[in-house]
Each structure stands twice: as structure tokens, then as C-alpha cells.
Amino acid sequence: MVSGKVIANCAMPYKELIHERIWSKKIVEFKSCEVDLVTETDQQVEKLLISNLKAKFPSHRFIGEESTAAGVKCELTDDPTWIIDPVDGTMNFVHGYPNVCVSVALWVNKVAQIGIIYNPILDLFFSARQGQGAFLNGKPIHVSHENELSKSLIGYEFGTSRDTEKMKVVMGNMNILTPVVHGVRSTGSCAQNMAMVALGGTNANFEFGIHAWDIAAGCLIVTEAGGVVIDPAGGPFDVLSRRYLCACSQDIADQLVKIIKQYYPERD
Ligand code: IPD
Q: Residues 152-177: pLDDT tens digits?
């Protein structure tokens, strides 16, 4: 059994580290392309997080953004697996834009059991446990009750790829959405985008090209807050597919599925 204290300790101890460094000079390296960044803080937080969790749960497995080498496939088995993004919103972190989150999830039998999204700069601690609801700083949260896409605020991102085909789809969807919704918002952190749907701040959010570590916690927080998480083409959500759509209701999800252009990245 994973206690509430372990859940809080998954992310909160890294507050100081991230806080101290967000407005300082960083060592920045490129990953898949020159807008896909990693800093020494991403690497350090991930190492600390994994070693702390390993000490408590030596038999558990780990999938971490920074310890998964580029191009290596993620292996998600039925074993308890912690899926970790130490700094989601690395581009924001590099620029000192305060939408950065530590995202930690525990999956067992390929189902999310615990989800934590912590923005240490804005002090937003989102958490959820399977079947027990979703919370922001300990208080229950719920998705919005909006049912009309035309009255919706949509979380949307340009992502960390400049692949021409993908950019065509991303820009195409921006053109499709802007005239038919209330507005479009980009936080620059996929985890925070999902948390905003859970909180009722936005009504839906989708993205292509994200990785399992970006969405493994958010998918549970959204569903525990009463929302839905599906594949953007309408099928079941697959955490390794690098595609997701989450919404406050199946109605909003269906309306989006009908109009958006699809993109299929290589799986994780
Ligand atoms: C990125 C952020 C960004 C999203 C990208 C992700 P990272 O994660 O979540 O919002 O658009 O697709 O890769 O690299 O900052 O952990």
C-alpha cells in the first residue's frame, strides 16, 4: 500500500531545487531536435526521485523521461511501474516561465493507480488515486459541466517537434478550432494541460507526439475528476500511443473527434 505521505514525498522535496534554479542559468542540451530540451535539473530530479522510490519499493519498475534513451521503446508490464517526468515543461523551465510540473504515476497491471502532478513554482499539487477522486492541494476537484464545444476553452500545444507533417496537422487543427470554440490555451506543460481539464479551467485538451511520462499521471487525475480520456480518433486511450484527448465529457470529446485532423507518431 502506498501511503499519502509517500505520495506527497514523490514530488514535494524537489520544490526547492526547481524553485532555486528556474530563474538561474542552466546547462541545456538538445534531445530529438533543437526545441526538445533537457537540463541538468531534469536529470537530477529524475535520479533523486527514482532512487527514493527504489529504496521504498525495491521490486517496482521505473519508466523515466530522462533515463529512457532516445529511440528506446518503453516496456510497460503488469508489474508495479512508476512513470516519471521530472520536469514537464522543460522549455518553460529553461525560459523561467512558471508552468513546470513534476509528474509521477504508479501503474499496476497496466492501469493507473496513483497520479501526481506538482507545479512547485505555483504550488499546485494535483493528486488522484484509482476510485478515490482527484484533488488540488488536498481539496476535491471536478471537471466542468460544459457540453457544447462552441462554449469550450481548449488546451492545445505546438509540441516539441518541428517535423513538417506534424506541424501541418498542428497548425491545421489550430485553424479548425479557433473559429469554433471560445478560446485556445497553451500552458507549455502537457501534465498541466491535463490538470486544467480536471480542475474545470479548460473543457478539453489533446496532443499528438507526447510520451507516456507526460500523460501517465494526468489521465488518472482527469478520469477521477469525472472527465474522459480517449484516443483522439475516438478509440480507447493507450498510454504508449503518444496520442491522447481528454475532456470534461464524452459529448465534448465526440465533438472534437469529429473535426480534428489526426497524426500518428511512432509509439513509445
Ligand atoms: C513536453 C511538454 C509540452 C508538450 C510536449 C512535451 P517535456 O514535455 O509537456 O507541453 O507539448 O509534447 O514533450 O519535454 O517538457 O517534459
A: 999 999 999 889 999 999 999 999 99
C-alpha cell at position 58: 525495491
Tens digits of residue pLDDT in 63-112: 998 888 767 788 999 999 999 999 999 999 999 999 999 999 999 999 99
Q: Which residue(s) pair with 183 in the sheet?
A: 153
Orientation of helix 4-11 relative to helix 40-56, angle to 10°? 160
Write out the three cell numbers for 10: 514523490
> How many whole angstroms from 1 Cα to the centroid of ligand 1?
31
Does the predicted TM-score (pTM) go above 0.90?
A: yes
What would the grid cell of residue 21 be?
534554479
Q: Rounded to an integer, what distance in angstroms lies between the CA atom of residue 138 and that of residue 12? A: 13
Of the candidates 257, 244, 225, 217, the one whose C-alpha atom is nearest the C-alpha of residue 83 is 217
202 pocket-lining for ligand 1 (C-beta < 6 Å): no
Dihedral sign, Cα of residue 120, residue 135, residue 196, residue 267: positive
Cα of 206 vs centre of ligand 1, distance in Å, is 12
DSSP three-state, residue 251 = helix
